[in-house]
Amino acid sequence: MTKVSKILIVEDESSIRRVLKKILEEESSSYQVDVAEDGEEGLEKIKAEDYDLVISDIKMPKMDGEELLVAAKKLKPETVFVMISGHGDLETAVTTMRLGAFDYISKPPDLNRLLTTVRNGLDTSKLVVENTILKKKVNKKYDIIGESTPIVRIKEMIEKVAQTEARVLITGSNGTGKELVAHQLHLQSKRAAQPFIEVNCAAIPSELIESELFGHVKGAFTSAVKDRPGKFELANSGTIFLDEIGDMSMPAQAKVLRALQENMITRVGAEKDVKVDVRVLAATNKDLKKEIAEGRFREDLYHRLAVILIEVPCLNDRRDDIPLLLTHFVKQIANEQGTVAKVLTEEAIQLLKEYDWTGNIRELRNVVERLIILGGKEISKEDVELFANK
């Protein structure tokens, strides 16, 4: 079945409006074409309907095309706009493109040019929709599951902090979900469309951490066969997440401090500085104040990072979330394995709520996966006793 493409023509001249509508409807039976006499009417229609493409005149009474473009993009950023004008000049074209228009066509429009632009615009609209759906799926992967008081507080803090540029230090035991907090801070920020670069400081050898973070130039060391940007450069205009920052070497800490102070980094072996614009989030399972006292972590770096502190609770401190987490993991694992989601009995859920979860949410997910593989069609208390290995 052919998908209907919804097109809106916003044009104050009735003759041009009729001609454009007729041309498009004759071009394809899959085009559903609506019209509006001015920008105000056009905006009301855009509020009420999801259009794949809007063709708008620029010079109109009440609300002109540029005003409509700006207002519509605020409401529905994915809407594709093609602007037309009988008063065309290069400056107007550039302005509308900067405001988010897909294309600009002078009046009277060349028929072939118009139809080609409409087809290309609709293809772009389709890609935008597909990307939006895919992005929602990816974002859902980083949802923070839970309704307990500690989790509600964290969600509220994320909502307040995400839109700012404040640096955040996320603390908590292994397996509590510190990386989910970092992802949510990025996804709810103004930088959400820009890169999110994650660095596990504990997994990188100390002799390589500087090259990993700041890059290197060819010949800086034996294996440096070409110039290579570091994570800070890759994260430019976006967010860098320094996980397990408590394991970072002191020399690397000094360079990270400089990057935070001056928004500048230097590749290993280079003399020229590189300006970077990154938001820094960090996480650790260590007590950094104790690390400072014992000379393993820089106090000045701590204060640069810990503008906002978010402590993620252990699973034992949020047991009321366990039923929600169980439901989430059962569905997630069933989708991954292409099987039907199993049901846990109330007795099984209650027993799992009583366990001591030293490995936190990561351990809980592993147990759920084991129960799905080894347990019966319905996961019982007996299955938990046999396979949870607690």
Automatic annotation (TrEMBL):
The keyword Nucleotide-binding applies. Residues 144-373 form the Sigma-54 factor interaction domain. Keywords: ATP-binding, Nucleotide-binding, Phosphoprotein. Pfam families: AAA_lid_14 (PF25601), Response_reg (PF00072), Sigma54_activat (PF00158). Residues 6-122 form the Response regulatory domain. The modification 4-aspartylphosphate is found at residue 57. It comes from the Bacteria. This is Response regulator. InterPro entries: AAA+_ATPase, AAA_lid_NorR, CheY-like_superfamily, P-loop_NTPase, Sig_transdc_resp-reg_receiver, Sigma_54_int. Coiled coil: none annotated. One of its GO terms (molecular function) is ATP binding. One of its GO terms (biological process) is regulation of DNA-templated transcription.
